[in-house]
Amino acid sequence: MPEDPSQAPKKILAQGKYLRLVLQGTWEYTERVGVSGIVGIIPVTDARELVMVEQFRMPTGKRVVELPAGLAGDIEGQRDEAMESAAARELEEETGYRAGRLRRLMEGPNAAGSSSGQMTFFLADRLVKVGEGGGDEHEDITVHVVPIAGIWPWLQAKQAAGLALDPKIFAGLWFAEHLL
């Protein structure tokens, strides 16, 4: 029986400001540096619209339509930030919406074959528009509010226009349909 690969020693192959590349046994993968977790938010308006964001993502070389998301514990002085706080902060920062109710749904690997990162998903409803959104000074985010009933043709049109679609959108739609 092969030995437990999770018990193999870790070797850091490279480290940048935000990511490190690790070799453990025969696996190479990335780890986030200086964060306590990753949050993904599924924001649904009272009118049954899904709020999504669009931004350029360097690894894909194109703009990506995705759920609002972000890092927890990445702000100096807030390293012990709760996941719920990070989700509320990221939702408002990226979309301009504040959730009247934010429900923690689940946690799981965001890219199980290449990253140790774990994403905690939150369902956000009873939304109130409190700002423009668009992200912080380092981000160029476009906010999209799309009726769930007509979302598939809208997503197909975005993809036909050359944008990438983050598959987590479809998990978000499932949660919105089954939990609201």
Task: Itemize the secondary structure elements and their pairings.
Blueprint: E1 10-15, E2 19-24, E3 27-32, E4 37-43, E5 49-57, E6 62-66, E7 69-72, H1 83-95, E8 97-109, E9 118-129, E10 142-147, H2 151-160, E11 164-165, H3 168-179
Parallel strand pairs: 4-9, 6-11
Antiparallel strand pairs: 1-2, 2-3, 4-7, 5-6, 5-10, 8-9
List keywords for this structure.
2 domains, 3 helices, Nucleoside Triphosphate Pyrophosphohydrolase, four-stranded mixed beta sheet, alpha+beta, globular
Tell me what the structure shows.
By secondary structure, this protein is an alpha+beta fold. It has two domains: 33 residues, no CATH class; 141 residues, Nucleoside Triphosphate Pyrophosphohydrolase (Alpha-Beta Complex), CATH 3.90.79.10. Helix content is 19%, strand content 42%. The protein contains three helices and eleven strands. The strands form three sheets. Strands 7-4-9-8 form a four-stranded mixed beta sheet, with helices on both faces. Strands 10-5-6-11 form a four-stranded mixed beta sheet. Strand 1 and strand 2 form a beta hairpin. The radius of gyration is 17 Å and the shape is globular.
Summarize the structure.
The chain is built from three helices and eleven strands, in the order E-E-E-E-E-E-E-H-E-E-E-H-E-H. By secondary structure, it is of the alpha+beta class. The protein starts with 9 loop residues before the first strand and ends with a helix.
Shape: globular
- How many domain regions? 2
CATH level 1 name of the largest domain = Alpha Beta
What structural class results from the helix and strand content?
Answer: alpha+beta
Mean pLDDT: 94
CATH superfamily of the largest domain: Nucleoside Triphosphate Pyrophosphohydrolase
Radius of gyration computed on alpha carbons: 17 Å
Total of helices = 3
Number of strands: 11
Distance between the termini: 46 Å
Low-confidence stretches: none
- Largest sheet at a glance? 4 strands, mixed
Strand order of the largest sheet: 7-4-9-8
CATH architecture designation of the largest domain: Alpha-Beta Complex
CATH topology of the largest domain: Nucleoside Triphosphate Pyrophosphohydrolase
- Tell me the strand percentage band: 35-45%
Helical content stands at 10-25%
Helices and strands, in N-to-C order? Answer: EEEEEEEHEEEHEH
